[in-house]
Design goal:
transmembrane; mainly alpha; about 75% helix; single chain
């Protein structure tokens, strides 16, 4: 005898973009858990608040590994949240014109934040800040 379970959440899409979006939610969510837990452990368990300062971050970002790690955290968090916001817009914004407007604002802001965050991570050069600090102090 089989007992029917109540259906929770959205059904798995049958194909197309929505299927890839559905898979992306699950994969990015798992990766985000791993990256976020790793970040918390490194920044708040292994190192104390007293040890984390500007120099700590500058030393950490001297390694390409940590830049890629932080960029992946940025990219996955932003795109995972973007995907969720996209679904919320599709579910709750009914008039087509407003839906197009909301999607346009959402995608524009997401692209802007991704570009600004990527530029900060890729172009960070602590030696330029040391010159400014020496000139000011």
């Amino acid at each position: 005898m089989t007992i029917a379970r109540p259906h929770l959440g959205r059904e798995r899409p049958s194909g197309g973009f929505e299927l890839y979006s559905w898979y992306y939610f699950r994969i990015s969510g798992l990766l985000l858990i791993l990256l976020a837990v790793g970040h918390v452990v490194i920044m708040h368990v292994v190192n104390t608040v007293d040890e984390i300062d500007w120099q700590f971050v500058a030393d950490r970002w001297n390694s390409p590994f940590w830049r890629v790690y932080d960029w992946l955290l940025l990219f996955l968090a932003l795109t995972h949240g973007l995907n969720g916001a996209r679904l919320a817009i599709d579910d709750y914004v009914r008039p087509h014109g407003w839906r197009v407007f909301a999607h346009s604002v959402l995608w524009t802001l997401a692209l802007l934040f991704l570009v600004i965050g990527s530029i900060a991570i890729v172009t960070f050069d602590p030696s330029k800040f040391e010159v400014v600090a020496q000139a000011g102090g």
